[in-house]
Specification:
The structure is a single chain. The chain has 311 residues and is of the alpha/beta class. The protein has a single domain, classed as Acetylglutamate kinase-like (Carbamate kinase). 41% of the residues lie in helices and 23% in strands. The protein is built from 11 helices and 18 strands. The strands form 6 sheets. Strands 5-10-2-1-13-17-18-16 form an 8-stranded mixed beta sheet, sandwiched between helices. A two-stranded antiparallel ribbon has the order 3-4. It has a two-stranded antiparallel sheet with strand order 6-9. The radius of gyration is 19 Å and the shape is globular.
Amino acid sequence: MTIDTSKGIPGLKGALRYVRAYRDHVFVVKLGGDVLSDQHFLDQAAEQLALLSSLSIRLVVVHGGGPQASALSRRLGVEPEMIAGRRVTDDHALEVTKMVYRGLLNTELVSALRSHGLQATGLSGVDGDLVTAHRRLPLRVVDDEGQERTVDYGHVGDIDKVDPRILTTLLDARFVPVISSLAGDADGNVYNVNADTVAESIAVAVGAQKLIFMTGAPGVLRDRNDPSTLVTFADPDDLAELMNSGALAGGMKPKVQACIRAATGGVERTHIIDGRAPDALLLEVFTGAGCGTMIVGRKEKATYLGVDLAS
């Protein structure tokens, strides 16, 4: 029997230029709760991350876990409160997030990566003074019903700084840091910080080449009920209309805002993809077409499109 060895070879050759370009660069990959909620999706993600690592791409993994925290809270008899895509964290909710983020999910993700040959190390933003934050003051927000209101988010933190030294140490030793979205302050307080914001801040601090959000959505949609309206490529100016129109609601809005801040803060390219789709991470990284939304700064957009900004 003759074996056809040509299958997949064109794609492998096409990926070679990306492999060369990304070697020894840092990718920050954020896994959302939708990806972590199913063992199959988690294993798919871990397998793809292992492949990236085998190509000498240096990985920092950040994870959320909102759905799991909400589920545990309900099992404990308390309904979680979400406003404008962000969790209100009272004393009870803080205890839940500690248990779910740093305990259950961080351990499961590290274990999944280990099963694919990666030496992963579980952390939170509290470890090694990695992420320092302060308690968010009550603020005026527009909720998902379009009403403006003042919200006290409780033990929710806003990031003051990221000290990447512990990450640099681990990356230089070829470990993969896996970071849950808790932060601390000098007084020993622990804060729940939006995982998208943690990922963005870390990506900027370590000078990442890419920031990738693996979510439960195909990317940014012009009509959130119609997957065919996927925005495949955008810069902050392109997204202003969508932001103002209210098309980006719930959990997608903080992701887009994080991408915009990262793209304007030195991260070359940011991506939002459906982390549940087979090989989505590899398709986004190693093919020109990708499979989700790529958000870049104005300068990187000009480079990507071959436009002379001076013209």
